[in-house]
Every structure is written in C-alpha cells, then in structure tokens.
Amino acid sequence: MPNPSSAAPVLTALARPIHVAARENPQFQRTVELLIAELAQPQIGTTAAVNRRVGLLLVQFVRAWLARHPQGQPGSWLGVMRNPVVRAALTCVHSEPERPWTTETPAAEIRVCRATLSRHFRDALGQTPGTYVTQWRMDLASLRLRDTGEPSSRYPAPSDTAPRTPSAAPAACPPGEYRSRSRDQGFGKVS
C-alpha cells in the first residue's frame, strides 16, 4: 500500500487497473518470461533483477496506456509525458532538487519564457511550477524523515511561492509525529 502523502504521481494517475494483452505488445511477453525465469530459480542478484524487470513492466504499461489514450490525461502526471515543455522543465528540476528553483530558472534552462512555462504547467498539471516544486520537495523531505528519522533542510522552498518549512510533513504535523504515524501505518522503510 503506497504512502498516500507521497504516492508516485504516475501511479495515482492510473487510478483504475489497466489490462494489456500480450498480443498488444510483444515486449510484455518477453519481460514477463524473464521475470518468471528469475523467480523460478532465485540466485545472487535476484532481488535486483526482479526489481528492474518490474520497473520495466511499469514503463511498458504506462506506454501502453498512453498509446490507448493519445490525448494524454490533462491535469495529471501522464499529461506531463505528452507536454515537452513541462517534461523538459521537470527533468531539470528533478536532476537537482536542492537547487533554489524559481519559475524563471527552469524556463531559462529550457529556453522558454516564464509565462509559457506557467501556462504549460497549469495545462498539464493544474498547478504552477512553484507549487509543484514545493510539493515535490515536501514529498522528498517526508520520505527522508520517514525512512531515516532525520528532517531534511536540503530542499529549499521556491522563492516565488510562500515560504514553507521543507522538513514539515504534508499532513501539517510536527516531523516526529509524522514519522511515528507513517511508521505505525506500515509506511516505514522497506529494506
């Protein structure tokens, strides 16, 4: 069960189960066969191999979903995949989460104006770049707090949004309470 306070955006966009027949994409069959073979004879490195193949299956499922829904899904993370401006900006932001991003900085990196980036963000995600970056950093800080017990100050709030405490949990409770609550609900670190 994913932690609802920091669920993977792409997974929440796939709200309903998705069924993809092997005949729709022959790569599925090959990936599943590799996964079955790995699980049938566990050995050194099986966990890593299984994790990579499951990740590959997820990518293949998302691609299949996008192929069935070429209009994307506006207002969701899947819509981002169809928007090259937002996708490029998020690539910059995700590669350096500790950088003090403003709306202008990723816009300059991808060579669009601030207004263009903001419009594309609203169309693709239903929020501004600053709001997205703040929430994403809060999620990163919450995961760090949950997994290590240490609050994080590595992720500054964007300067063009209201200041927030990066180590605060999204549920607006003190860090220690969030850590205890998330671990009590079974969202503790998985080894």
**End-to-end C-alpha gap:** 15 Å
Query: Superfamily at the CATH H level of the largest domain?
Result: Homeodomain-like
Average pLDDT: 76
Please identify the top-level CATH class of the largest domain: Mainly Alpha
Structure description:
With 191 residues, the protein is an all-alpha fold. It has two domains: 4-68; 83-184, Homeodomain-like (Arc Repressor Mutant, subunit A, Orthogonal Bundle), CATH 1.10.10. Helix content is 57%, strand content 0%. It is built from nine helices and no strands. It has helices spanning 9-13, 26-40, 46-68, 77-81, 84-95, 104-109, 114-125, 129-148, 175-184. Helix 2 (26-40) runs antiparallel to helix 3 (46-68) and helix 8 crosses helix 9. It is globular, with a radius of gyration of 19 Å. Residues 1-7, 160-170 and 187-191 have low confidence and may be disordered.
